[in-house]
Amino acid sequence: MLKINDLHASVEGKAILKGINLEVNAGEVHAIMGPNGSGKSTLASVIAGKEEYDVTQGSIFLDEEDIDELAAEERAHKGIFLSFQYPVEIPGVSVTNFIRTAINETRKAKGLEDMPGKDMLKMIREKSEMLEIDRKFLSRSLNEGFSGGEKKRNEIFQMAMLEPKLAILDETDSGLDIDALRIVANGVNKLKSKDNAVIVITHYQRLLDYIVPDFVHVLHDGKIVKSGTKELAHKLEAQGYDWIKEEVGV
Ligand code: ADP
Ligand code: MG
Ligand code: MG
């Protein structure tokens, strides 16, 4: 599904990603870990196509298509979802209306008509029940006065409704409390299927007790220096990152 070859990227002229290779297949959950400043969020942003980042070398393929030239919006239409892509507060626009617009824009980009209101309501009902989201929450103004947990709930609801092919959840800097952790993990576990893939970015191993990854990659100074299975995350939790640096000589 996703194939990244020798990816180099910079921001404001400073090289951040220095040769990333990563392959993610449908049905897989990948965790990306690594110390602060190693480039995790940059990698997420580059995959999603955020404009501030310049790809200086290498390529990103989604389903055999080179997406490097596509704008963030077009990548979203192709099924790439990045958490916190829409963190803005919009007074007067409800959680539901926002997602309705996002879904219909995606459909329009594919040459489809708006989703019939009846189908939309059915989908909203199903997804919100699945994620145990209160009805009242759906009519609140987007992100206005949301607590940390509510922001997470909104994000996971957006993900559920948009049914992305590839969901990238960057949880590094948000200092997730147990409540938020459960919301995220629950959502991911309910939504993952053989047809989609998830990349979870986290500084801490704790989240991976709830979302069990198939593969774990460690990023250091813009490169993936080690890959393994969930055992690698446990070892990192117990021993930190220093042994990896010694092992790979960075
Ligand atoms: P991580 O998510 O692993 O903590 P980041 O990708 O956020 O790491 O950051 C990697 C490096 O890139 C850091 O040195 C950071 O300061 C720098 N960086 C990231 N985004 C920007 C930006 N928009 N402008 C300037 N520097 C940035
Ligand atoms: Mg950081
Ligand atoms: Mg980060």
State the assembly state of the protein chains.
single chain
Coarse structural class: alpha/beta
Shape: globular
Total strands: the figure is 12
List the total number of helices.
9
N- and C-termini, Cα separation: 30 Å
Provide the number of structural domains: 1
CATH class group: Alpha Beta
Give the helix level as a range of percent. Answer: 25-40%
* Nearest-integer average pLDDT: 91
Estimate the strand proportion: 25-35%
Could you tell me the CATH topology label. Answer: Rossmann fold
Spatial strand order of the main sheet: 6-9-10-3-11-12
Based on CA atoms alone, the radius of gyration comes out at 18 Å
Helix and strand sequence: EEEHEEHEEHHHEHEHEEEHH
Q: Low-confidence runs (pLDDT<50, min 5 residues)? A: none
What profile does the largest beta sheet have?
6 strands, mixed
Q: List the bound ligands.
A: adenosine-5'-diphosphate, magnesium ion
Second-tier CATH architecture: 3-Layer(aba) Sandwich
Give a structural overview.
The protein has a six-stranded mixed beta sheet, with helices on both faces. The chain has a four-stranded antiparallel beta sheet with strand order 2-1-4-5. It contains nine helices and twelve strands. Helix 6 packs parallel to helix 7 (178-191). With 250 residues, it is α/β, with parallel strands linked by helices. The radius of gyration is 18 Å and the shape is globular. The chain has a single domain (2-248), classed as 3-Layer(aba) Sandwich (Rossmann fold). Helices cover 38% and strands 28% of the residues. It has helices at 40-48, 72-77, 95-109, 117-130, 135-138, 148-162, 178-191, 230-239, 242-248, and strands at 2-11, 14-24, 29-33, 53-62, 65-66, 80-82, 90-94, 141-142, 166-170, 197-201, 215-220, 223-228. Adenosine-5'-diphosphate binds next to helix 1.
